[in-house]
Amino acid sequence: MTTRMATEAELLDLLAEGETLTTPERAVLLARATGSEPDPRTLPLGARNRLILGLRSQLLGQTIEAGDVCPCCRETVDFTLTCAALDGVDNIATGPVDVRLNDYVVTCRPPTTADLLDAARAETREAARQRLLAATVIDARKDDAAVEAVALPADLVEEVGRQLAAADPLAEVSLTMSCESCGGTWDTVLDVSEFVWKELRDWGRRLLWEIHVLAGAYGWGEREILAVPPGRRQVYLGLVLDG
C-alpha cells in the first residue's frame, strides 16, 4: 500500500489542531501525517516514534541538534544526533515479552498510545498505573495459577517495566551526558514526539512568516505560495529581502 506524506498546508492545520492537545495526542497527529497504516494509536510507542522520525527527516533533515542543562554546574550542554542513528536502535522486540521472577511468569507487550490515553482518563495516578499495567500484561501466572495484573508484587512490576523499556528502546530514548565545564555526567531522556513537535512548531512559524512576506510582496494567497516548491520559494524570499 502506498502512503502519502502530509502537505505543508496540512501540516500547518495539524500544528494548529495540536496546540490544545496532550503530548500523546500530538504524537498521534504527527505519526498520522506520514500516511502510514495501521492507526498509530495501536502501535508500540517505539514504532510510532519511528514514523515521527521519518516525518522529521523528510521535512527538516537527518541531523538533530539539542541540549540539556548540566545538573552540577547548570551549563547548557549541546549534543547532536541523527534520525538514522535513533531509527537503527537494536534489541527491538517483535512479539510478546516474557518476564520471569521468583515463581512468577508474566507475558506482556510494550504499551501503545491508546494505552497511555486510556490511562490518562483515570482519576488518580495509581489508577492510571493500574490501567496501564492491565493493558500491557497479556498473561500472569504464579506456579501455573493465573494472577491478576493488579495483584503482581511491586518488584515484579518494576522488572516488567524495565524489560518492556529494553524491548522498545525507541519509546523513550535514554542518553548519557557529560559536561566539559565541570566533568559531571548524568542521564537524560529525549521525548521524541514532543521534541519533534516543538521543532515542527518552529518550522510552522517560519513558514507562516515566509507566507506573510511573499503575500505582501507579490499579492499571492497562501495556497498559491504553498504551491511553489520550497527551494524556489526561498529564491523569491531572498529577492524580496535583498530588495
Quantity of strands, as a count: 8
Helix proportion range: 40-55%
Radius of gyration: 22 Å
Tally of individual domains? 2
Assign the structural class, choosing from mainly alpha, mainly beta, alpha/beta, alpha+beta, or little secondary structure.
alpha+beta
Which whole number gives the mean pLDDT? 93
CA distance, first residue to last residue: 47 Å
Indicate the low-confidence ranges by residue numbers: none
Estimated share of beta-strand residues: 15-25%
Largest sheet: 4 strands, antiparallel
- Name the shape in a single word: elongated
Number of contiguous helices:
10
Commentary on this structure:
By secondary structure, the protein is an alpha+beta fold. The chain folds into two domains: 8-89 and 177-237, no CATH class; 97-167, no CATH class. The chain contains ten helices and eight strands. It has helices at residues 8-18, 23-32, 45-60, 83-87, 113-120, 125-136, 154-167, 192-218, 222-227, 230-241; strands at residues 63-69, 76-82, 97-101, 104-108, 137-142, 145-146, 173-178, 185-190. Strands 3-4-5-6 form a four-stranded antiparallel sheet. A two-stranded antiparallel ribbon has the order 1-2. Strands 7-8 form a two-stranded antiparallel sheet. A hairpin with a 2-residue loop joins strand 5 and strand 6 (145-146). Helix 2 (23-32) crosses helix 3 and helix 5 (113-120) packs antiparallel against helix 6. The termini are far apart. The mean pLDDT is 93.
Identify the notable features of this structure and list them briefly.
243 residues, alpha+beta, 2 domains, four-stranded antiparallel beta sheet, two-stranded antiparallel ribbon, 10 helices, 8 strands, 18% strand
